[in-house]
Design brief:
heterodimer, A: 247 residues, mainly alpha, globular, B: 61 residues
Chain lengths: 247, 61
């Protein structure tokens, strides 16, 4: 039952996001980039949560391959879906930041930007890959292999970028040089918590919706309205009929 | 590059936050549409189950 606790989680998330917005605009001081820095409290936590979501999807895919339980494939699929949505927001907010701070909508020499775009393009192939495979079991297996491989690529890619001497991207989580002092750090971590809560809420929301749809399909079958021998409609989403069992 | 003054930075900041919340709202709207579809299916199935139950009551054989 994925819907259990969804209401309380949604309320907590709404409260946390509201509190974060208030802290960002009324409490956090402006530093080097002035008022424009308010974008970083949105952009950076979003980017970190997006990448963590991709890694989490990889771990769920490992659980799928290990247990052969289709529910893990669904969890991995939804995690990648939510992370892609967050990733689009990261690219757009990053582009707006780049325009304001550096005078360009996109800076190709900036390794963090380009590597994030590469990761997004990589994950953009996830849904077409699933759609291209008709057999649901093979689709789930191949998608899990993709999720694991891409999930490993994410930290490797960003580790390499961090080591790159040519970067010009502001380092937010760099305590050694102290570029995120005092209240800014508090607001940044508050924003991290809010974005994590938002990700988890949306993931749970979509899992609940998928689970309800699966249960309805099963009910339809039980009532004889849907036939097992009817050709299944091709879909990129995991096979719903096989994940409808409780738990 | 020097920090932009508030009147110049404001539209960028507003733009970034509006884009983010618009994306989340579009996602929620799509999910709401799917929820409405599920609700409609549930109503159909409930009606079907009720009709079958009624026909069984009418014809105990």
């Amino acid at each position: 039952m994925y819907g259990k606790g969804l209401r309380s989680l949604s309320l907590i998330t709404a409260g946390a996001v509201t509190l974060t917005l208030a802290a960002v605009f009324f409490w956090a001081p402006n530093a080097t980039y002035g008022f424009l820095e308010k974008i970083l409290y949105l952009h950076v936590p979003l980017a970190i949560i997006t990448l963590c979501g991709f890694v989490a999807a990889g771990l769920m895919a490992v659980a799928h391959l290990h247990t052969r339980d289709e529910r893990w494939d669904m969890r991995s699929y939804v995690a990648i879906h939510i992370s892609l949505i967050f990733g689009i927001a990261v690219l757009l907010s990053g582009s707006i930041w780049a325009r304001g701070a550096w005078g360009h909508w996109w800076v190709w020499q900036e390794p963090t930007l380009v590597s994030f775009l590469l990761i997004m393009l990589l994950y953009a192939t996830y849904q077409p890959l699933r759609f291209a495979i008709e057999d649901p079991e093979r689709q789930a297996r191949y998608a899990s292999v993709f999720a694991i491989t891409a999930g490993v690529f994410v930290p490797v890619c960003f580790g390499i970028v961090r080591l790159s001497p040519a970067y010009v991207h502001p380092r937010t989580l760099d305590n050694i040089s102290g570029n995120l002092p005092g209240r800014m750090q508090v607001v940044f971590y508050l924003s991290m918590v809010s974005m994590t809560l938002l990700w988890v809420t949306l993931w749970k929301f979509e899992m609940t919706a998928k689970h309800v749809a699966a249960q309805l399909r099963q009910l339809r079958r039980a009532l004889g309205e849907d036939h097992d021998d009817a050709p299944a409609r091709r879909s990129a989403a995991p096979s719903l009929s096989r994940i409808a069992s409780p738990n | 590059m020097p920090a932009l003054p508030l009147h110049s930075a404001g539209p960028y900041v507003a733009g970034a936050y509006v884009v983010f919340f618009a994306i989340i709202l579009i996602y929620v709207a799509i999910m709401a549409t799917k929820l409405v579809r599920s609700e409609r299916t549930l109503a159909e199935l409930t009606e079907l189950a009720r009709q079958r139950h009624a026909s069984q009551d009418d014809d105990p054989q």
